[in-house]
Design a protein that fits this description.
mainly beta, 40% strand
Length: 107
């Protein structure tokens, strides 16, 4: 597990990464295609369950144009202050209640 800019990632042996929590993340969030750790690129494929839930400090959420994100797990953003998100074309599944109670979400 590593922390980059207040976002915690779980890394796998297959060189993928999952966002697992975001206690210290705030403002506009940009998620690149991959993060670097130990001279290896780990492709971000998943936003984990409740990883941004109840985070009242985030607003805009964007992904790189070449994003490989495939899954947004259930309740990932529930009860957060997110206002907008650009969901990448690579997405295959969005979990139940991923954006529930996001009263400020516009787009």
């Amino acid at each position: 597990i590593i922390n980059q800019n207040g976002i915690f990632f779980k890394l796998t042996k297959h060189f993928t990464a999952e966002i697992i929590k975001s206690d210290d993340a705030f403002g506009n969030i940009f998620v690149p295609q991959a993060i670097k750790f130990d001279n290896h690129d780990f492709v971000i494929t998943t936003i984990g369950q409740k990883s941004f839930a109840s985070n009242y400090n985030i607003t805009d959420f964007q992904f790189s144009d070449d994003s490989k994100l495939e899954l947004i797990k259930k309740e990932a953003f529930s009860c957060s202050s997110i206002v907008s998100i650009s969901i990448p074309q690579s997405i295959k599944q969005i979990g139940k209640d991923a954006f529930s109670y996001c009263k400020d979400l516009k787009t």
